[in-house]
Specification:
3 domains; Rossmann fold; about 5% strand; mainly alpha; DNA Cyclobutane Dipyrimidine Photolyase, subunit A, domain 3; binds flavin-adenine dinucleotide; about 50% helix
Length: about 475
């Protein structure tokens, strides 16, 4: 009888533990992807749906090259698995597990139910460096601070046994499959995907990694904070959908650091980011309310203002702070935003505008191709100061000096805010400080060609600090 290979967020054939295990049985493999929107804790966001559409098509093509056929089903996971078991006579289901609390619980229930009917179910870790629950502190609990987690993870890290490449996938029984285009994953109303960047799928992931190792890794430590340079790997959507394993990125970084003479220190910096990804995933696994509740509960007493017009100005990149507006427009246009700018725009929303971080998190969820519940929530809570190992709330990013420091020539800002392109770097991060004749010569009329700042930085800063006092004074 065949084995069902249930694809989740592991949309690749290489380094795929569930596929390797299925292959090792020597039985025909029935690969399936189930779009189960009904039981998802949160529907997939718009930009991620675009990515998923392309990624599944790439996976289906690779499977076809190996003589197989990806079965696509939409509906309740358990019901669809049972239907497939009935159709194929399969007696075993293999999958790489989801570690998000909701997915974990659901899959555990499905596994119990199928096992009760005599179907073997096997789960693997194909998405994280380490399995949640395997990196614990001295008292057996989860780490809540990154650095000790990072050290513990590095100390106990064991590379997975070498997994072979893709294998022959022919010989599975034929069954019905949905037409992916009928799933409507590609955005329609509106279709804003025209400028989305990236190449979904396993081949695209490999290309992104190679490009980064060739040009970005050697100066990663400096360039990773520079949105005006292409200094980071752009692997995040590939990692989210499991088109590449974090292990592959990890080992390739150390191999490249060794061979081109650049210090292993750069590879350490890069892999520390991969460890942040594990850290967020482990935290979420242990603390299921991470996307909904402040990790430090007193932060849920923050006197948010939540001004609807200001939220809209933020989403549209019309706040009057050029670095914030550039980031928000980059996000909308490309489905991606540079990490430094994510921190700046998030801090601006939360602290300058006193808008609940959950509203920003929701907008990112819909617009990011790499939208990931654990990563998004952990990072928003990091900026808000309410997270497990957060940046202190009183560290309020100054959007002017952040722009000057990380985009000194205004290259990034003017790419996304072209209405300021004739302003010199001295004024491009704070156009309202430019003398009227300079503004006139640059064709900028504040309030008409480009917005006046939504709030005054110094006043907003004081208001944010005062808000913090109110939550602290209540003990
Ligand atoms: P690189 O610098 O090349 O890093 C390599 C990999 O390490 C990334 O692909 C990513 O998987 C991981 N990584 C890097 N930075 C972080 C980080 N701060 N936290 C966790 N993992 C990290 N990342 C997501 O994948 N999904 C999200 O939904 C998400 N939301 C975010 C929201 C906010 C407010 C902020 C400040 C950050 C968020 N991040 C999120 C983290 C980070 O911005 C992206 O992972 C990063 O910009 C991806 O670019 P890259 O692949 O070129 O990164």
């Amino acid at each position: 009888p065949p084995v069902i290979l249930w694809f989740r967020r592991d949309l690749r054939l290489a380094d795929n533990p569930a596929l390797q295990a299925a292959h090792a049985t020597g039985r025909p493999i029935v690969p399936v992807y189930i779009l189960d929107e009904g039981s998802a804790v949160r529907p997939i966001g718009g930009a991620s749906r675009w990515w998923l559409d392309k990624s599944l098509k790439a996976l289906a093509a690779s499977i076809m090259e190996r003589g197989g056929s990806l079965v696509l089903r939409r509906g309740d996971s358990e019901a669809e698995l049972r239907r497939l078991i009935d159709q194929t006579g399969a007696t075993c289901v293999m999958m790489n597990r989801l570690f998000e609390p909701d997915g974990w619980a659901r899959d555990t229930d499905i596994a119990h139910a199928l096992k009760a009917d005599g179907v073997e179910v096997k789960g693997f870790n194909g998405t994280l460096l380490t399995r949640p629950g395997s990196v614990l502190n001295g008292s057996g609990g989860p780490y809540k601070v990154y650095t000790p987690f990072m050290k513990a993870l590095r100390a106990q890290l064991e590379p997975p046994a070498h997994t072979t490449g893709p294998c022959d996938l022919s010989g599975a029984p034929e069954v019905d499959s949905d037409d992916i285009d009928a799933w409507g994953l590609h955005p329609t109303r509106p279709d804003w995907s025209g400028g989305f960047l990236g190449e979904p799928g396993e081949a695209g992931a490999t290309r992104a990694l190679s490009a980064f190792l060739q040009s970005g890794l050697k100066s990663y430590d400096d360039d990773r904070n520079r949105p005006d340079r292409e200094g980071t790997s752009r692997l995040s959507p590939h990692l989210h959908f499991g088109e590449i394993s974090p292990w592959r990125a990890w080992t390739a970084a150390y191999d490249a650091a060794g061979s081109d003479g650049s210090s292993a220190g750069q590879a350490d910096k890069f892999t520390n980011e991969l460890i942040w990804r594990d850290f967020s995933a482990h935290l979420f696994h242990h603390f299921p309310t991470l996307p909904t509740d402040a990790f430090r509960p007193e932060y849920d007493r923050m006197p948010w203002i939540n001004d609807a017009a200001q939220i809209e100005a933020w989403t549209k990149g019309q706040t009057g702070y050029p670095i914030v507006d550039a980031g928000m427009r980059e996000l909308w246009t490309t489905g991606f935003m540079h990490n430094r700018v994510r921190m700046i725009v998030a801090s601006f929303l939360i602290k300058h505008l006193l808008i609940d971080w959950r509203k920003g998190e929701a907008w990112f969820w819909d617009c990011l191709m790499d939208a990931d519940l654990a990563q998004n929530a952990q990072n928003w809570q990091w900026v808000a100061g309410s997270g497990a190992d957060a940046s202190p709330y009183f560290r309020i990013f100054n959007p002017i000096t952040q722009g000057q420091k990380f985009d000194p020539d205004g290259v990034y800002v003017t790419r996304w805010v072209p209405e300021l392109k004739r302003l010199s770097p001295a004024f491009v991060h704070s156009p309202w400080t430019a003398p009227p004749e300079i503004l006139r010569a640059a064709g900028v009329t504040l309030g008409r060609t480009y917005p006046k700042p939504l709030v005054d930085h110094a006043e907003a800063r004081q208001r944010a600090l005062a808000a913090l006092k109110t939550i602290n004074s209540q003990g």
